[in-house]
Amino acid sequence: EQPSYQTVCKALNVPCDGSLIPLRQGFGGSGTGASLATRSLFRTMFYLSQSVDVPAEDVATRIADSPAGGEDAVPKRIFNIRSSATEPAKAAVKIFYRGIWFYIADDDIGSKTTFSLMSMLVTLQAGDTTKITPLVSLPGS
Predict the structure, then answer these.
(1) Is the distance from CB of 94 to CB of 66 less than 8 angstroms?
(2) For site-directed labelling of 82, which of 41, 67, 74, 97 has its Cα 20 to 30 A away?
(3) Where would I find the beta strands (DSSP E) of the chain?
(4) Residue 67 CB coordination number (10 Å)
């Protein structure tokens, strides 16, 4: 009976009978339900790169572009890389690049979580998983 449920059912052309809406991964599809296409790791990295605070001087000298659509393009950022001419005092992660410090603030829980997740995904994709074996430990007698 919820209006939002009815809106989704109508948009997906499925019965509004209160049952779960089947989801499957991929593009298009046939039958009822919805197909979800997730971003690749590189598309995700590109999306997150739009949350870098690019120094105005780098944009003016065409060293870098400003994020697509400007500051208003992403209403609520899940990832925020700040920039500073001076070394940040409270940074979870920081790097000095071309005379500017880029960093994630230590009090930015969302960005730290997103960075950790991306680090794990990059590690999983880049690693040689065929040689990883499970660790088995047996209790001593």
Answers:
(1) no
(2) 41
(3) 23-25, 34-36, 82-84, 91-97, 100-105
(4) 17
